[in-house]
Amino acid sequence: MLTAFGRCGDLSTAFSLADKMVDQGLSLTEDTFNFLLQACIADKEAGFRHALMVWRKLMSRHVKPTLYSFNLLLRCTKECGLGDPDVARDLLQPFVVESRLKREDAPATTSIGSVVADEESSSLVETRPNLLGHYPCLGSNLLPLAEVNTPENRLLLLGGPSGLLQVMKEMWVDPDIKTFTQLLHLIPPTLAAEKSLVEALTRSGVVVDIDFFNMLIKKRSMRGDYKNGRQVLQLIRAAKLYPDIVTFGVLALGCRTKEEAQALLRDMKEASFRVNDIILGTLLRQATYQSHFGYVLLIMETARREEVTPGPQFMEHLRKFEERAWEKLKQDDKHHSAEEVKKKDTFRKIFRMYRLRCKQWEEQVKPQTKAEHPWEQFGAKRDRKQQKQAVDL
């Protein structure tokens, strides 16, 4: 029953069943806590807080977490919030106080360094929050819990990427590529943080897959770091992997010029990949953002030549592009210089030629005017005779 309610996301019922198991003297295993973590994911507002409580209960009962446990916790960190910060503080503080008392009562031979590796002093440990290990602490330099409202800040409560990986090492749990992929979602969008994670991945000996590198390219491209996004291709080659269609899709995010788009399309052809509506739409978005008619016409011509039917999103990019062009042409020329007026006349001529080509292009490619239902691709088209027979039946 706990399995069913946990997977269905019924948090209150799952917790009630766990309490009944305790009342009846039944043992709580790692599977029990994993199902509770699954239930926490359903609460997007305060699921992270519930997950922390489940984790502390797991630790207090001396249950060894599994790789699945850590990956579920990371998913909670990515998708769920902390909820009311005051409630979170009241719930977490007893664990921190208990941890401090246990540490003070520990034998003199037990050093902080044996609990948290690579720390030079106990004062340094105290400044770093970590609610995962045997001795949880909130840290002295932690942001107020009210400001822990982003995935990267929530990861700080777990000790950051290095702290989490260290706890896994202490508990003899080896990470997998899913662990590192989820950490990639959670780390700050900086080159230093990404390089540190890639180095940790290399040291761990985990077999990397192309999805990790695709996400890394996308993460860099989304913040405008196109140069370092393309450099991920070197990491892909070093890992003896090959780009897939998704790789080219995320690389398209960084094609700001017509020449870069042509190079990408050429690379796809050499790799025997056929361009699709999604990739062309991504390139078109860059082209329209740059207001480059030559770039826009290149993408339109590629769609016609490769027999790609443009979807509604593709056509929406063109519509907005035309709207911006019309707005530019409607601007008053009174206060413009002679050179600016000349440029505008040239723009008007190019736009007129573009409109003529666009009408011809639409007749040739016959774009979709509305999104196709996902199930329509599985339907069989019937002629009128078959339809009539179906009605008669």
Automatic annotation (TrEMBL):
InterPro entries found in the cross-reference section: PPR_rpt, TPR-like_helical_dom_sf
GO molecular function, one term: tRNA binding
A Pfam entry, by short name: PPR_3
Any one cellular-component term (Gene Ontology): mitochondrial matrix
Swiss-Prot/TrEMBL GO biological process terms: tRNA 3'-end processing
Comp. bias (Basic and acidic residues): 364-381
Residues covered by region (Disordered): 364-393
Protein name: Pentatricopeptide repeat-containing protein
Annotated source species: Timema douglasi (Walking stick)
